[in-house]
Design brief:
Elements (H helix, E strand, L loop, with lengths): L4 E5 L3 H9 L5 E3 L2 H7 L3 H11 L4 E4 L5 H11 L6 E6 L2 H12 L4 E6 L2 H9 L4 E4 L1 H6 L4 H15 L4 E4 L5 H9 L4 E4 L1 H8 L2 H23 L1
This protein binds SN-glycerol-3-phosphate.
SN-glycerol-3-phosphate (G3P) binds next to α7.
Length: 222
């Protein structure tokens, strides 16, 4: 039975540490925006992240030509053996994916918004493909249908690419990803936190403890 992997979508060390300590994190995804939020030297931050999480850690290239992307990818992959290179879903990006995968540098094709883009990235041999479902939803598009068909395409042909459900907006998105057998969900910290919580758990725990206390008093009085 295949396991569903959880990545955390952040470049924040505290958030990564907290979820890592809970033992529910298999990897990390970052992007230029997430790294910029931290306001520190990106490569140093990625090194720190790779020391905490031994699973795949995605780091994105900035260059727009395949030559620039390949050069950057080779540099980024020196940070740690678990670095995966995020490459944008463009023609130049796809060229870079082919070359990098041939050099055994793992790639994660990012900014993916359609089933056709999934198909192209899979044919190029990307290790990971990241459909951005939240941004599709923001545009009023059917993000669930896009994900469902993408998973079908991957499964029918047995493509080696793993789907990372990305741009997750809420806990329901994680359920949808799981129902479709998505390989990975990359989840923001606030959504991971919500996944732990249910009001009945807190209510139930409170009443169990109160009843237990009542019993202790009763036993003392005997
Ligand atoms: O992993 C992709 C993710 O970082 C994009 O998320 O919330 O900026 O749409 P968002």
């Amino acid at each position: 039975m295949r396991k569903m992997e959880f990545f955390i979508d952040t470049a924040n060390i505290e958030q990564i540490k907290e979820m890592q300590e809970l033992g529910i994190i298999d990897g990390v995804t970052t992007n230029p925006t997430l790294l910029a939020k931290e306001g520190v030297e990106p490569k140093e931050q990625l090194k720190k992240i790779c020391e905490i999480v031994k699973g795949p850690v995605s780091a994105e290239v900035i260059g727009l030509t395949s030559e620039e992307m390949i050069k950057e990818a080779r540099e980024l992959s020196k940070i740690a053996p678990n670095i995966v290179i995020k490459i944008p879903m463009t023609k130049e990006g796809i060229k870079a994916v082919k070359k990098l995968e041939a050099e055994s540098i793992k790639t994660n094709v990012t900014l993916v918004f359609s089933q056709n883009q999934v198909l192209i990235a899979a044919k190029a041999g990307a290790s990971y493909i990241s459909p951005f479902i939240g941004r599709l939803m923001d545009n009023g598009q059917d993000e669930i249908a896009m994900l469902k068909e993408s998973m079908e395409i991957i499964k029918i042909y047995g493509f080696k690419s793993k789907i990372i459900v990305a741009s997750i907006r809420n806990a329901r998105h994680v359920i949808e990803a799981a129902k479709m057998g998505a390989h990975v969900a990359t989840i923001p910290f606030n959504v991971l936190e919500k996944m732990f919580v249910h009001p009945n758990t807190e209510k139930g725990l409170k009443s169990f403890l109160e009843d237990w206390e009542k019993l202790q008093h009763k036993l003392k009085r005997k």
